Amino acid sequence: MNAIAAWIPSFVKWVIETSFMATVMAILILAIRMVLKHRLPIKWQYGMWFVLMARMILPWAPESGMSMYNMFPFLERQTPVAIMNPVQDISGGLPPMQTLSPPNREANDASEIPSNIGIPTLDLVMFILWAAGSLALLGTMLKANRDYGRRLGKAQPMPAESDLVRLLDRCKDELGIRRRVPLLVSAEVDGPSLYGLVRPRILLPAHSPETFGSKELRYIFLHELVHLKRKDIAANVMMTALLLVQWFNPILWYAYRKMREDQELSCDAAAISHIGAGEVQDYGYTIVKLLERNVSRPVPLLAATKFSPKLPQLKRRVTMIATFKKHSIKWTAAGFVLILLLVSVSLTNARAEEANPALMRELAEMEQANAPLLEAVDPAVRGQVEDTIREVMTDLGMALPLKRAEHVPNSNQWFLEFEGDGTGMTSLWVNDETGKFENASIGIDLSQDRLEAALMHQYEQALKKQGYAKQADISVHRVIDNMLENGPYQVQTNITDANTQVVFLDGKVIQFIADGS
Questions:
Q1: pTM for the predicted model, two decimal places
Q2: CB atoms < 10 A from the CB of 13, how many?
Q3: Which of 16, 70, 218, 403 has the greatest number of beta carbons closer than 10 A?
Q4: Residues in contact with 193: Cβ distance below 8 Å, sequence separation at least 6, in sequence order
């Protein structure tokens, strides 16, 4: 349960932040499309949506000063705490692990680090609502696709000797496609489409052989085979899966609709490049003829490519076909550069706050002072031990001098004790074979000027939200301890004034205590 308690808030936070960043990026892409319109080749307009998908799926991205998310200071900018090794029992007469609490403070639940963290109510409610919506949407889509697949199961592929299949084979040869692509003609289909992720098939309405001539059918086949060659179905399935996570975001659903439009227009452009210049108008007439007959409500198919018959989309499509021309090298290069710029500003995260120079100097001086006490540590792991100490002290916000280093062979650990201020234990355990963190119990008081700017901002916002003003005289106590049996250490910061106490856990407010509450 502890692992779930730690995972759910982090997951909710990731979903919300990813949704916000993807929304900003979708708006940027829509603005670029609006400004450049027909100047930017449609293949590059379509390509921008793949950058959006990458943004929606990335669990982590490098920090950069070029990131457009630097404009949003409320986004998380701190590097996540690394997952540490499991906690091990400490023996051999050394100080036992215990929860730290600063002396001379009123006892309350927030002043200590609990040994078992519950899931915050808001996070739990949001997770339940998210899961219910995601599962409901998934069930609806799977049912629609299952029913559609069952109806298609009654249709048999056209025989290889039929004229339609021979025409399809010639179109495959034009595009260099070698795989077998069955052709199905069915009354269940209201418009041509490519269907199936694993075993793609081209579907035609039952009226197609009578409605369209061989030239028109060639255009239709070229269009659907371009979808196949570019693996557009896989792109649609991927985007749909991402929207199952972001189902609550209407802007991303709108972006998906625009992506499908660009997909069809890009496919038109690729198909037109394989026909003669004099046939472009005939291709456009074929598209209009198709969409005039395709007036039914589209089915939410996961593994299909199909264009919306709505008038605005039809007008844009016909306009693109009517004005089709091969873009100059200049605009092709501009599209490539635009994609690179989009990647650099959107697939990077906001740069973390600059390290405190004073703390960095303290850490350097601390390492020099600690060197004699660490001489007994195996040189092969001593560097890692120093890195572990530096990481912990950076999170603590103060460089504590090392007072004692003692080997504990029966637990394969080094016990490191530091000089503190008497407000809590100052103990750290590292593995004697790897030098990596295993356990900690460290608690100290900090001066206000050592608090991170982002944390102070959150503190002031928490006071304001509760109707309090920031006091000049505040006290700060910070604790580093293992809170989960098999998880990382976490950092608790208590900021107290005469009337309130605000408790932070890993830089986030978890409790607000007012005088008398």
A1: 0.64
A2: 14
A3: 218
A4: 202, 203, 224, 304, 305, 306
Dihedral, CA of residue 149, residue 152, residue 156 and residue 159, to nearest 10: -90
* Three state DSSP letters for 209-270: HHHCCHHHHHHHHHHHHHHHHHCHHHHHHHHHHHHHHCCCCHHHHHHHHHHHHHHHHHHHHH
CA distance 54 to 409: 48
Fill in the amino acid letter for 113. Answer: I
Which DSSP letter does residue 377 get?
S
Q: Taking a C-beta distance cutoff of 8 angstroms, is the pair 390, 363 a contact?
A: yes
Q: CA dihedral defined by 426, 443, 455, 482, rounded to 10 degrees? A: 80
At residue 55, what is the residue type? Answer: R
State the Cα–Cα distance between residues 347 and 178, nearest whole angstrom. Answer: 36
CB 513 within 8 A of CB 500: yes
Residue (of 117, 128, 159) closest to 3 by Cα position: 117
**Structure-token match 């005469």, residue found:** 498
- What is the radius of gyration, based on Cα positions, of the chain? 31
Nearest to 19 by CA among 228, 250, 205: 250
Render pLDDT for 449-478 as a digit per residue (tens, 0 to 9). Answer: 888 888 998 899 899 988 999 998 999 999
The dihedrals phi and psi of 189, each to the nearest 5 degrees, come to: -105, 130
